[in-house]
Amino acid sequence: IKKGTDNLASGIINDSVKQMSKLTADILSILRTITVYHRENYKLEFRKHISTYIEKEVPNITPEGENTLKIVKKYFKREMPGFPYYPDLVKEVLLEDYSESGSKLRESVLEKIAVRDTKPKKREKKEPPLKQLLLDGLKIIAASGVNLSDAMNKLSINSSTLEHKKLSFSEKFKRWILKSVYKEDDSPVYEIEYFNTATGTAKSEKIKFNKFKSEVMKKTSLFSKILSKTSPISKQLEMVSDEQLLELLSKNIAETQIIHRRMDGLNTYFLTEVPREKRQMIKGIKLELGAIKSAIIKSNKKRYEYVSLKEEREQLKKLGVENID
């Protein structure tokens, strides 16, 4: 899937792999914590039930002395029924409690099981630089280039499917006249309908398909250059003024909105105009349209955030508040 063109599936897989790696690390960390807890709990039970007998019956206690281990084994089964005998943990207890380095060993254990303050430190919230908001907005809208390209490829297939239907003699003659006599482009023209939210009315628009396709390809090429850190355009964006960036962002958002509207209209057109027997050949672009719409909304949010913050800072400057960047 990663080598194909299914970007949505690739994104889901990559995200899942990253999440699995993080979850694996979290699980291993939790297991280590649980292991430490059970080890120290075992040692605590040993101290509560066995250490008293050792201190009573062994005059000179040495961690690995025969008398010490003899007393341990003598009372272990009786005082700790149900507990398995772990020589390593028993040795740790004896070393921590009765060896010369015992105090250091106990400090090490206490350090290991200490409860940490997991509350995140409060950080001062810094406002992002205004220019960065515009650059982020441009990158967000530019990221829709992949979806624009995928959608256009599918629409091209749909157009071919529709155009390959059997033409009548009059249709063939009309196309020949347009191309030969009037030198007009014989590119298919589709009349789509859309709802104009500004006026609240239904509108129609005729789209020359090849011209529209060319415009979309130019847009995706521009978006690709914006996203490339090594492209001249990407480097120039860092140098231009905020006003120029705002104008460029607004222009690309508006143009992408128009492309989205036309693609949506073409998608509906092909689904309804293609003969019923060929409809299974039509490729839908709802996923791509959704991704493009999301990019438009997110980049627009960055634009509005920039305008709002700029106005706010200008007001503060008028009030004499400086150093607000």
Task: Provide a descriptive summary of the structure in words.
This protein is mainly alpha-helical and 325 residues long. It has two domains: 7-113, no CATH class; 130-318, no CATH class. It is 68% helix and 5% strand. It is built from twelve helices and two strands. The chain has a two-stranded antiparallel sheet with strand order 1-2. Helix 6 (130-142) crosses helix 9. The longest helix has 43 residues, at 7-49. It is elongated.
SSE order and pairing:
Elements: H1 7-49, H2 51-57, H3 66-79, H4 87-98, H5 102-113, H6 130-142, H7 145-163, H8 169-180, E1 189-196, E2 201-208, H9 209-227, H10 232-237, H11 242-273, H12 286-318
Antiparallel strand pairs: 1-2
Helix pairs in contact: 1-4, 2-3, 4-5, 6-9, 6-11, 6-12, 7-9, 7-11, 7-12, 11-12
Notable characteristics:
mainly alpha, two-stranded antiparallel ribbon, 12 helices, 325 residues, 68% helix, 2 domains
Distance between the termini: 45 Å
The percentage helix is 55-70%
- The tally of helices reads 12
Order of helices and strands: HHHHHHHHEEHHHH
Overall number of domains: 2
> What characterizes the major β-sheet?
2 strands, antiparallel
Number of strands: 2
Task: Report strand %.
Answer: under 5%
Estimate the global geometry from the Cα principal axes: elongated
